[in-house]
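Sequence and structure are no longer studied apart. To make this concrete, we show below a single chain and its fold as tokens.
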Amino acid sequence: MSQDHFLSKVYESVANKTVTPSNKPQNLKQAYYRVILEQIDEDTDILMQNRDENDNPTGDVEEFKISDQLAKQIKSSIKKETGFAASEGKTNLNEIIQKVLTIAGWSKTSRLNYLIESISNIFDKEDLEVNNIIKYPNLLESLKSSLFEENLINKPFTRVELKSLIPQWFHDFFESKDGTNVINELWNLVPNTKPASGSGELAFTLISNAKKAPEGDLSLNGDLIEIKGSSGTMGADGQVLNTASELAKILQGDLVGVSKANRKKELINRLNEISPRYEQFKNSVIQQVENDTPFEEIKKTIDAGPLTDKGKERLYKMLVASMTIPEYNFRDSLLAFFSKYEVLSDDQLADAVFAARNYKNVSSPESIKNKIKQILIADKNSFFKKGHERYFTPEMASLISALHLCCYQEKQKFKGIIFANDVNKSMVYFKFNGDTVSQNLDNAYSFILKFKPSISLSMSQIQSAAGFNFFKV
């Protein structure tokens, strides 16, 4: 934290009379001396003397008692300052960070000065080995390989912890010989810059031979690598909003009625859970639902019924949720379609999964459908089960999300993708076999089944592709 920040806070304290220094300061400099360094019941002493306009010592030397923690901070700051001043070229931490960012590919990003200051503040919290950290730019520039490459990129399908990717030379920048806390903070530092960046990108470029890519996340040895943190979603072009209409064409227009019938059946089952004490009331509401009575009319029946206000409110919400879902809804339309799996051909089922893709135009649609059909036929009983009319089986959710992953890769052309958990800093790398969806779908499906991430398929105009959360705490 900068001295300016401390001074502004001191000034606020004095102005607001939340502190009472022994002699009321007349300016910020005095406030800094007399409030921050005001006597505290500790055993650490510090001697201070004012300076004149030419920065020469003047006046009496004053003695203050300060906290051990503040004394430690002051000593650390003095040590860093004198160390950098005595180094070759008389550099400072900000200059070192700027050189490192240039090597790491961040020099053309917007708000570069803000990024330098943010990183320096993180480093400044630790006691630095100045003689080691001044070598940082040369160390990073000379890297031919890294733990990031060896332990993560070269070992796809393997769960890895962030701390195992931190090189010893980085730990040596700190007197504690442990830079883990710094890297954890850098992981969470997401620069609000252009091009956009996400969690993890900055941290990896500061400890490895990976660079910030001009377009995309990271570049390593010429290959683009994507990073997705917790709840990261795949890219899309809004195709999922067309899924229901494509499904209706496969069923020759029968889908809408099926979807509506399923929702009505589910709603009636829930209404039947109302207490037998209200049998007459319950039957009246069920009869109205079966007759497709408008919601406002059903609401009048509820308002006149025997339920408590809280009970009526719950029933309103249940009816609204069940009766106002658009007919062309991604999740409902797919579930309605798959509920008829027993009378559908394998080609129709494969066409339906293909209709759930996240990009409208993809290469070789027929090859993709054939690959989907092979995966479905190999384990059909797992994809379609009785009792799964209200939600996707894990296998179906995995296949749809694998399709989204592969379509995304085909559009963006990255070599692999890192899925990371921003909380526990666990991650895994998925490497693509080729450049097309059909080349990668098998592996992507197996990958998702193996690691069992939380999958979100709640599609809308806001989220139009699968979302993943790996290694959830």
Residues 32 and 87 are 29 Å apart (CA to CA). The chain is about 50% helix and 10% strand. The longest strand covers residues 57-66.
